[in-house]
Amino acid sequence: MASDDDVIRKRLLIDGDGGGDERRLNALMKLFIKWCNSPDPDISTHQRMLSFLAVGEFAVAKSSFVYEMNMKQMEKYKQLQEEIDANVSLAKKEIEKCKTELAEARLIRKNRKEYDALAGVVLQHPDRQQTEGQISELKCDLKELEANELRLVEKLDLRKKQFHALLTSINHLQIMLNETEEEEEDKRSLDVDMDDAKMDTTPEELAQKT
């Protein structure tokens, strides 16, 4: 036994677009059988059959027209889908291009910041001409310092020699002073001995000596 879905599907296939074609076909078939079985020509039945045929032809033409319209609409939808796909692909390419440009812009911005920072550091230092002038001045100052150093070294050597001569003279004087002190000490010792000898001599001995 056929299910309800099968019956509905069969009716839709037979009925066309649902405009009563099945009933008209059944009525046309009954009229045709009646007309064939009638011994006398029935003009009214013939006219009714022609009317049913005209309506059927109109329904067929209408269905054909609807089919063509649907096919054209499907073709249009297909073209529209292709255009949408092309636009989506183009949009993806534009997005990738924008991403690349954004990355390049970020890199340029980063390089510009680094350049500005480096330029600020460079501007804090004097230019090449000024630096060369300062170097020349420093070289002149260095030469003067070297000359002063040489003069100071020579003067220091002279002072060392003078100091050495002074120390030598002081040493000689110290030796002479020591010798003089020794002579004076010997002389004082001799005088003391003579005084002691005089004190030990009696008046008689002195008289005899005189």
From TrEMBL:
Keyword field contains Ribosomal protein: no
Statement: the UniProt record of this protein carries the keyword RNA-binding: no
Database matches in InterPro entries: THOC7/Mft1 (IPR008501)
Signal peptide stretch: none
Superkingdom, natural source: Eukaryota
UniProt keyword list: Coiled coil, Nucleus
Main location: nucleus
Residue ranges, annotated region (Disordered): 179-210
One GO cellular component term noted in the UniProt record for this chain: THO complex part of transcription export complex
Alphabetical GO biological process terms: mRNA export from nucleus; mRNA processing
Cited function: Component of the THO subcomplex of the TREX complex which is thought to couple mRNA transcription, processing and nuclear export, and which specifically associates with spliced mRNA and not with unspliced pre-mRNA. Required for efficient export of polyadenylated RNA. Plays a key structural role in the oligomerization of the THO-DDX39B complex.
Stated family: Belongs to the THOC7 family.
Entry protein name: Uncharacterized protein
